[in-house]
Amino acid sequence: MNRPFCELHLHIEGTLEPATIFQLARQQRLTLPYADEDDLARRYRFTDLQSFLDLYYDNMRVLRSEDDFFALAWAYFLRAGIAGIAHVELFVDPQAHSVRGVAETTVLRGLRRAMDRAREELAISSSIIACVLRDQPVDSAHAMLEAVLSADVAVTGLGLDSAEAGHPPSRFAAVFADARAAGLHVVAHAGEEGPADYVWEALDVLGAERIDHGIHALDDSALVQRLVADRIPLTVCPLSNVRLRVVEDVAELPIRRMLDDGLCVTINSDDPAYFGGYLDDNLRSIQDAFGLTDGDLDKLCENSIAASFLPDSEKARLR
Ligand code: ES4
Ligand code: ZN
């Protein structure tokens, strides 16, 4: 990838590779419910979003100390360097750790150390977007936001993730209003497994500045017009959509239509350890399927820069 891509939809816990899970378990003398790495890797076959989330949350048991979060993020940055990524806005799920007794500050400090090192040694810039687990109570989301805002590590934004069906964005209107009042950027997963209506809610109720996935937005032409008019980017994750059975094959994704309709579509890796590839692999997967030209790749790279929350001076440096 000889273009300065920005990765805008990357769950840092979704970069936890089987080898790292076993390494961290050995260090902590934890016994895992899997015989070995291959046994674990064989379970990376999913029927839908929930079947993935069950394993994703379960594997987090190996993430306990600040050093564990450093190790997780540093391994990701080394791989991101190979992919040629210039900037990452990484998602983290603080509630998935606080529920196990791991404080928000422990998580954020470990990530921050890896981010500082990535900037110095790999020239990769990054920021953190803390995500609300939409299948958990609203009170828990409020508590997470408060803890994150009072931590000594800054975050750039608030996101919304986890099981989408039956969990509309509007439940979290007050939490996202607080986040905006505190100066955070706002993004939300919507239209991954859920309907176009959830994308409307993410925009109109939460004030989302980007939509994560948004595949089902294309079912609603008025919504597409709105996304184009307001220049709301979509962070599409091709290999994720295949592995979670949103589509059978990447060729079914409406990426060509998104480009032709003037949507600000970006390509991202979501949970690369679970879905079979990092950002470079995701780009390769659609390059053949859609016959992407150099011009298309330039456009996807430019979209990723434009859609980032970098200050204009940093965007200009990447262009
Ligand atoms: C996620 Cl693919 C996806 N969708 C929703 N929530 C998530 N958390 C981690 N990966
Ligand atoms: Zn995601």
UniProtKB/TrEMBL annotation:
InterPro entries: A_deaminase_dom, ADE, Ado/ade_deaminase, Metal_Hydrolase. SUPFAM superfamilies: Metallo-dependent hydrolases. It comes from the Bacteria. Binds 1 zinc ion per subunit. Keywords: Hydrolase, Metal-binding, Nucleotide metabolism, Zinc. The keyword Zinc applies. Its cofactor is Zn(2+). The record marks H213 as: Important for catalytic activity. It catalyses: adenine + H2O + H(+) = hypoxanthine + NH4(+). CDD domains: ADA. One of its GO terms (molecular function) is hydrolase activity. Zn(2+) binds at H9, H11, H189, D270. Belongs to the metallo-dependent hydrolases superfamily. Adenosine and AMP deaminases family. Adenine deaminase type 2 subfamily. This is Adenine deaminase. It comes from Microbacterium rhizosphaerae.
